[in-house]
Every structure is written in C-alpha cells, then in structure tokens.
Amino acid sequence: MSLALFGMVMDIVIVVLLIGTIYYAYALSKQLSAFRKHKAEFENLFMQLTRQINTANESVDHMQDAAESHGKVLDRLIHEGQILADELKIINDTSNSLADRLENAASLGRASSAQLPAQKPAADTDDDGAAGFAIRDREVETGSDADADIGFADDDDDDIGNFHSQAERELYTALKRKG
C-alpha cells in the first residue's frame, strides 16, 4: 500500500510539472510569435539608427576639418600679431631712447644758455621764467623754403604747401607713395 501510494504521488508531481512546462512553452511561443511579428519594425529601427550614426560621424568629421582649417588661420593671425607686437616694442624702445636723447640735448642746451648773457625770454618759458622743453623747427623760424631743397614745387600738389617743415613734407610724400 505504501508503494502504491508513493507511485500515485509521484504521478501527480509529474503531471503538475508537465502542466507547468506546457504553460511555459505556450507563453514562450506567444512571445516568439510577437517577436517575429515586430521583427521587421526592429530591423527598420536598427537601419534608421545606423543611418543616424553614420550622419553623426560625417558631421563630426566635417566639424574636425573646419576646426583644423580655422585653427590654422588663427595660428597664422596669432603669429602675425606676435610679429607686430615685437615690432611695436622695438619702435617703443627706439622712441624712448630718442626721447631720452632729446631730453639730454635739451638739458645741455639749457645749461649752455644759462651761461650765455641774458637775452629776451623765449616763448616756451614758464611763468617762473625757467625754460621748458620744446622742439623747434629751424625752417619755420627762419622762413626758409625747403621745397627747392628736395625738388618740390607748390604747383605740383596743393597739399604740400600746407606743411610747415621739411619733415612734414617728407612724411606726406612717403605716405602718398606707399598709399
């Protein structure tokens, strides 16, 4: 009796397990049929995703090329700017040196004029009578015509007659030749 009861319990366990297996196979079959039904949609989605990735890669390549070309232009402009900055520094140093030399010359001129007998006060004296620094153009003071010295005639160009010194005329003609 116990053996027959044991056989019957085993048969019931096997039937329950078979029913569970059949249910699992049925559910799996439904999921596989749904997957097959939507397989075309998945393939279409993957194709669109692949196209978008390729477009993004092309855009990144294009942006890298543009950045590289603009980077080269910027590097060239920076290099030119550095060259100009160096030139301006040289010009500044030279002008400072020239200003120092002019200041020294003015100091020597004041010292030598202090040793001369008293003359009428110059137009560049301060209220206290001390001579200030001034740059004078001898051509303007003497009234000489420098056009003949450098080969200019007033009838060649109306603007040349408006200048007070030879240095102004030379600067004007140099700028006019360059422009």
Give Rg in angstroms: 50 Å
The biggest beta sheet is recorded as:
none
H/I helix tally = 4
Beta fraction of the residues? under 5%
Class per helix and strand makeup = mainly alpha
Residue-averaged pLDDT? 80
Poorly predicted tracts of residues? 146-156
- Assembly state of the chains shown: single chain
Order of helices and strands: HHHH
**How many β-strand stretches?**
0
Terminus-to-terminus distance: 126 Å
Helix content: over 70%
Shape descriptor: rod-shaped
Task: Please characterize this protein's 3D structure.
With 179 residues, this protein is mainly alpha-helical. Among the domains are: 41-120; 136-179, no CATH class. Helices cover 76% and strands 0% of the residues. It has four helices and no strands. The chain has helices at residues 2-115, 138-142, 147-150, 166-178. It is rod-shaped, with a radius of gyration of 50 Å. The N and C termini lie far apart (126 Å).
